[in-house]
Amino acid sequence: MFQASGPASPSPALEAKSSSGGSTVQRSKSFSLKAQVKEMCTACQKTVYPMERLVADKFVFHNACFCCKHCHTKLSLGSYAALHGEFYCKPHFQQLFKSKGNYDEGFGRKQHKELWVHKEVESGTKSA
Question: Which UniProt keywords apply (predicted)?
């Protein structure tokens, strides 16, 4: 019943497919397939992936590796205390260091008072 007059022309959708068939897809220049720098866990020295990454005092850990040095309980960012790069749960930190009033004594280091005494003795002998 109905006939189109004139030569048959392809539909607009087909024209778009045929004209873009030879072109290449360009990707954004910000997109890169380069490998990112692998971060290593401070405790176990294995690769830390972004989903399991935890950073405390600029050290990178796995969630499971972030433990108290004394009792090995798992720590969180709100429940730890750090001293000289070692991480402790708050109860053990207080038990080991705060109760003595001297943080260096717990690590076997010289007390600051001893360092001051040596400087005073040296300065006293030089001036006399």
Answer: LIM domain, Metal-binding, Zinc
Answer whether 47's CB lies under 8 Å from 39's CB.
Answer: yes
Q: State the average pLDDT for the chain.
A: 74
CATH class of residue range 37-65: mainly beta
Angle CA(74)–CA(109)–CA(68) in degrees, nearest 5? Answer: 5
In the block, residue with structure tokens 């109905």: 2
How is the chain split among helix, strand and coil, in percent rounded to 5? 30, 15, 50
The pTM score is 0.51
- CATH fold for the domain made of 67-128: Cysteine Rich Protein (2.10.110)
Return the sign of the alpha-carbon dihedral for residues 57, 63, 65, 71. positive
Q: CA-to-CA distance for 117 and 113, rounded, in angstroms?
A: 6
Residues 32-49: what's their mean pLDDT? 82
Q: How many residues are given for the chain?
A: 128
Residue 125 clears pLDDT 90, i.e. is over it? no
